[in-house]
């Protein structure tokens, strides 16, 4: 379940797993409340689209203001569906990373998605956070485990002190793939159709499992109940909209 919040027409969701931490900002945008025209209507927060950059800048301003992060600096990366992780204490637009971690107060980190899985992690003891972009390649490449391991090395992160959110993405009844992709997933994360030779992949479950394997208690892991495909009126879906669509942001940061 999620807390739904609207401010100046900007619609976003705060994961319930994070709502008891007043020093934390964590949110996931929807597609509502921006200025972008179709096919990016309306709260397109993705830089790497053909939407006018003026629109994206205004949309981001509105979103950051609505979630209470107007004074925060922001760090993100051009994502490449890999497993490289960036530790940063500075804002900026980096390149080649699909996860960011920080323990710098006042610095918001985030990932853009439009079917892939956003994962947000909060280490309460060490006041550190992570934002992860996991497509199917990042998922099978172990980006969640690699991020947690890096947090452990950098901050001393322990599982019992972590709270995590597996965000809105393509659902397990919509992500149909061929055997070249399906064979890289374990049987518990795929349903095979022998007649078509296709399989359906559960990306949420596949990214929850490494959180559990690291030792994070199940009660400290939230899972989005929404789907970019089934709830396409509220979320952008690259697959449904055949690439001509906007992007959501999933962000997290420690307050000053």
TrEMBL record:
- Catalysed reactions, as listed in the record: inosine + phosphate = alpha-D-ribose 1-phosphate + hypoxanthine; S-methyl-5'-thioadenosine + phosphate = 5-(methylsulfanyl)-alpha-D-ribose 1-phosphate + adenine; adenosine + phosphate = alpha-D-ribose 1-phosphate + adenine; adenosine + H2O + H(+) = inosine + NH4(+)
- Family assignment from sequence similarity: Belongs to the purine nucleoside phosphorylase YfiH/LACC1 family.
Q: Which InterPro entries match?
A: Cu_polyphenol_OxRdtase, Cu_polyphenol_OxRdtase_sf, Cytotoxic_necrot_fac-like_cat
As recorded in Swiss-Prot or TrEMBL, the protein's gene is named pgeF
Key words of the record: Hydrolase, Metal-binding, Transferase, Zinc
The name this protein carries in UniProt is: Purine nucleoside phosphorylase
Q: What is the lineage of its organism?
A: Bacteria, Pseudomonadati, Bacteroidota, Cytophagia, Cytophagales
Per the database entry, which stretches of residues form a coiled coil? none
Molecular function per GO: copper ion binding; hydrolase activity; S-methyl-5-thioadenosine phosphorylase activity
